[in-house]
Every structure is written in C-alpha cells, then in structure tokens.
Task: structure prediction
Amino acid sequence: MSGIEGRIAVVTGAASGIGVAVAELFAERGARVVGVDRSEAVRDAVAALPGTGHHAIVADLTAAGAADAVAAETAETAGGIDILVNSAGIVRLAPALELSDADWDATLAVNLTAAFRMARAAGRVMTAAGRGRVVTIASQAALIALDEHVAYGASKAAILGMTKVLAREWAPSGVTVNAISPTVVATPLGEQAWAGEKGEAMKALIPVGRFAQPREIAALIAYLADDDAAMITGENVVIDGGYSIV
Ligand SMILES: NC(=O)c1ccc[n+]([C@@H]2O[C@H](COP(=O)([O-])OP(=O)(O)OC[C@H]3O[C@@H](n4cnc5c(N)ncnc54)[C@H](O)[C@@H]3O)[C@@H](O)[C@H]2O)c1
Result:
C-alpha cells in the first residue's frame, strides 16, 4: 500500500504542467485529488484522472479569501486535507530596471502570497488532525541568479524562508513542510521563459543535457508527500540535472 493511498491532496495549478503531472501520479497511487486552478481547464484535467473521489475547484488564488474558501470546500467535499501541493505560479520576465510594479506585484501575489495563504488554510486543518504534508514548488531561481528573473527569483527565494518557519512551527503537530527547486521543466511556463536559442543555451549548462519532465518533478513531490518522508522537513530539494553543482 502506497503512503499516499486514500489521502486527500489539494493540488494548485492543476490545469497545466507540473500540477497536472502531480494530480495524475497522486491519483494513480490512490489519492483523492482536489485540483485547483484559475483556468476552467482544471475541470477536464480532474475529470480525466484515474480513480474516483476527485474534485475540481476553479479559483483565482490571489483573490481575497480564496485560499480559505478552497480549504473549506475541500473539507466539506472530501472530509479533510492530508496533502497540499502549491504548484500554481507565473513568470514575468524583464531586466530589473524595466520590470513594472504590476509585474512585480502579480508575481509575488501568485508565487508567494497565494502559496502562503493556501499553506496557512491547509495547515489549520492538518495541525488539528495531527498529520499533513505541504510541498511548494520553488525553483533553481531561488538559489542562483537568472537574467530577467528578479521578481520570480525573489518570490521563489521567499518560499524557502516561508517553508523553514512553517516546518518548525508545525513539526510537533506531525506536519512536514518542504520546497523543491527544479531546473527548467518542459511545461507551458518553462517554454515561456526558455524558448528557442535561449533554451538551447540553458540545456548546454545542465550536466544531464536536457530539461526535466513534469513526471520527474511529480515523483519527487509524491515522495515528500508520503508517510515515508516523515523525517524530512524544512528542506529545499534541488532537482536540476546537476545545474547548480559547484
Ligand atoms: N516549468 C518550469 O521550468 C519551472 C521550473 C521551476 C519551477 N517551476 C514552478 O512550478 C510551478 C508549476 O509551473 P508549471 O511549469 O507547471 O506552469 P504552468 O504555467 O504549466 O502551470 C501553472 C498553473 O498555475 C495556474 N495559476 C496561475 N496563477 C494562478 C492563480 N492566481 N490562481 C490559480 N491558479 C493559477 C495556471 O492557470 C496554470 O494552470 C510554478 O510555481 C513554477 O514557478 C516551473
């Protein structure tokens, strides 16, 4: 029996990319998935998952009260929250001198503030239940400088700080909180930031010589969400094909 079988897993960003891969892998392993996304496409993505008991919620997680509403709807329809995967995210690229206030604010609102609000809402349910798993997708951009990624990198570095504090506060309640930091992943977001020649140049810097596949990221998240990972908390697990080897 898998350590996530029967668990109730909220996956944000579940209409695309890594969120879809996580929802699929979790569903294959017997979890009940609550897929959340601002895109209506999350309904079809969740309907296509194997197994039963899944649920889709269309919500813009930057809206006031949205995270609490998602947690309440999940508790009502599924009966609890065992796992939260924060995958919803955006990237707005520009040289720092040219980045607009709107792009900075939008990036921080989705990548950091919404992830915190989801973690807080889920964390209330998890700490009361005495068990839980929170995994937030940061990025290699949390650790190293990437041109034009000032807002993105700041939002992802902040996730690491958030993760450590939540991990420490919730460890006595049986809740682990971790981040993962992928290199470029073959998704619409990865394509937006790394299309064409720029992408080929990046691949040449990754020792394994390619971008990550969403399924590879999902497999790491599934491990961190498993009962077996109870001793890992406050960690940032880098999954970058060796890009950040120094
Ligand atoms: N793809 C990469 O190269 C890469 C690398 C490192 C980290 N990441 C991170 O992984 C996560 C998933 O990225 P992806 O590549 O799957 O991207 P993606 O664009 O394929 O999917 C992101 C999903 O988040 C949803 N979303 C965005 N804003 C939202 C909001 N306000 N409310 C609800 N949903 C919202 C989008 O609708 C989309 O379905 C992101 O946090 C991203 O920063 C991606």
Q: What stands out?
A: The pocket of nicotinamide-adenine-dinucleotide is lined by residues 13, 15-19, 37-39, 60-62, 87-90, 110-111, 114, 137, 139, 182, 184-185, 187-190 (CB under 6 Å). The helical segments are 17-28, 42-47, 66-78, 101-129, 150-170, 188-193, 196-205, 214-225. The mean pLDDT is 97.
